Amino acid sequence: MINKKFISDLFDELFFIPRSITGKGFRKSLNIFKKFINFKIYKTPSGKKVFDWTVPKEWIINDAYIINPKGKKICNFNENFLHLVGYSKAVNTNLNLEEIKKKIFTIPKYPNYIPYVTSYYKKDWGFCMKHNDFKKLKKGNYKAVVNSSFVKGSVDFGLAKLNGRMKKNFLLSSYLCHPNLANNELSGPLVMLGLYERIKNWKNRNFNYFFLLNPETIGSICFIKKFKNNILNNLQGGLVLTCLGGKNNDLSYKLSRNENSKLDKLILNLEKYERGIKTRNFTPATGSDERQFCSPGLNSPIGQIARDPDGTFKEYHSSADTKSYMNVDKILSSIDKIENLLKLNDYNCDIYSQNPYSEPQLGKRNLYDKLNNQVLPRSANKKQTHSLRYYLTNILSLSDGQHTLVDIANKLEVSSNLIFKYVKLLIEEKLIIIK
Fold first, then answer.
1. Please, is 199 exposed, middle or buried when counting C-beta atoms within 10 Å of its C-beta (0-12, 13-18, 19+)?
2. Bridge partner residues of 69 (DSSP)
């Protein structure tokens, strides 16, 4: 059962694994999720050309630290993985104060945070520390030690599928490659796990749901290389899950590249008529794997969903991104909210009348009375309430195969959630179908 204790315990197990874009730390973490999500693991070998990228060698890191002039270890990798620049090459050298300072990264604006820095595709080395500690460094001899190596291996990703009745696909994606980060690392996969469990238990699924967990950027590129002519060619929509445990109460949705997908239109409708979600315009300058999925040759209808988007919170990519900042309760809330969104989107298809040559007889089906105890919402202009007859007859009239659930909601100037209830009712009565 996906509850607060389960999420909290799983977080604790994952947080102290030294992950990167390759290697045993990533594999160990992926295999932990594989216990709960039926992932098939795919591997792309080191050295393989993938579009404009080359799959890197695996990075093996055993230890790293600096010994200061008093003989004390500082920037100890085994105390906090962020102390070492990710993918640092091996080094064992003596440096003076000015030389060692050039190899240390800090965040002067937030002097008590250790930054997260990587050098995946350029062989280099370096350390990270709090700026307040950096300012206390004294003159003298420093010894820098990085016990690391590079071997031929692979970039791995996990892919799982829950079948639906249609041939349309929906992709839920997240990444797993940052060490000692909470909101920016573990919130997305934890929400994915919760959604997998929820969707698996839906009585009916219209779409095929794919779940992708990969190292950020290079992992999604390897996935695209393998599946661009299969999964991505028949996509109804998708979400990149990231930073879903932050402080904001509202969800934040980054529109797809064209900003007019069915999912985009649904969320824009909810933003207009309800509370709880806000939209951002698409940009490839920031973000996560939606940048790859929305590349010009794909132009996939995939957006990104977060609470605190990347780069908008001061704890981002630093040691301050902890479990307390991430907040397990917000993870559970994100699972609830995104599941409700996906349930709605699962019916956001073209709607067809089963009685296209005349108005069906609603009275004999007791449809006028079925919901008469509900208070129907006002229209967008707030001047009048509408009857059940109004909504049902309008939905039926617009069920011509050229309107989706969201199209009808926008035309009637109401939330898609309202139309969703009536669409489900008409489907149950076999008056409409969705394709």
1. buried
2. none
Asked if residue 77 has pLDDT above 70, the reply is yes
The dihedral region occupied by 297, where left means phi > 0, alpha psi between -120 and 50, and beta the remainder, is: alpha
3-class DSSP string for the chain: CCCHHHHHHHHHHHHCCCCCCCCHHHHHHHHHHHCCCCCEEEEEECCCEECCEECCCEEEEEEEEEECCCCCEECCCCCCHHHECECCCCEEEEECHHHHHCCEECCCCCCCCCECCECCCCCCCCEECCHHHHCCCCCCCEEEEEEEEEECCEEEEEEEEECCCCCCEEEEEEECCCCCCCCCCCHHHHHHHHHHHHHHCCCCCCCEEEEEEECCCHHHHHHHHHHCCCCHHHEEEEEEECCCCCCCCCEEEECCCCCCCHHHHHHHHHHHHCCCEEEECCCCCCCCCHHHHCCCCCCCCEEEEECCCCCCCCCCCECCCCHHHHCHHHHHHHHHHHHHHHHHHCCCCEEEECCCCCCCCCHHHCHHHHCCCCCCCECCCCCCECCHHHHHHHHHHCCEEEEEHHHHHHHHCCCHHHHHHHHHHHHHCCCEEEC
Model pTM? 0.95
**Residues 154-179, mean pLDDT to the nearest whole number:** 97
Nearest to 237 by CA among 314, 302, 166: 302
- Contact between 195 and 338 under an 8 Å Cβ cutoff? The reply is yes
Mean pLDDT of 393-406: 96
pLDDT for the residue 232: 86
Q: How far apart are CA 187 and CA 165, in angstroms?
A: 30
Q: Over the chain, what is the mean pLDDT?
A: 94
| Mean pLDDT of the 399-424 span | 96
Q: What is the pLDDT of residues 293-306, one digit of tens each?
A: 999 999 999 999 99
